[in-house]
Specification:
Blueprint (H helix, E strand, L loop, with lengths): L4 H27 L3 H31 L7 H20 L2
Helix pairs in contact: 1-2, 2-3
Length: 94
């Protein structure tokens, strides 16, 4: 769950775009659009959902583990580990 007002706003905006994409997909299917057009819209929706998932995951990791003081060397290592985990998640969820 996004915690900051900026993260919430970004998530809601993404969801609205996803809703619009899903509605467009529904119209395409109802009108008998070509398979290639439907597949392209499905890929766009999948990308949008994956982007939302990345954002929520990043927000969760930073909220759960990212409040440590960066002046402490152990906390810097924690922040680097969080950054590494986020980069890994982003590389797998495209």
């Amino acid at each position: 769950m996004p915690h900051s007002p900026e993260d919430k706003k970004r998530a809601v905006n993404r969801l609205r775009r996803i809703q619009g994409q899903a509605e467009a997909l529904s119209r395409q299917i109802e009108s008998g659009a070509e398979c290639s057009e439907v597949l392209q819209q499905l890929a766009a929706i999948r990308g949008a959902v994956n982007g939302l998932m990345r954002d929520v995951m990043e927000s969760h990791l930073r909220e759960s583990f990212g409040h440590a003081n960066c002046d402490n060397p152990q906390h810097r290592t924690l922040h680097q580990s969080i950054d590494d985990a986020i980069a890994l998640v982003k590389s797998y969820i495209k």
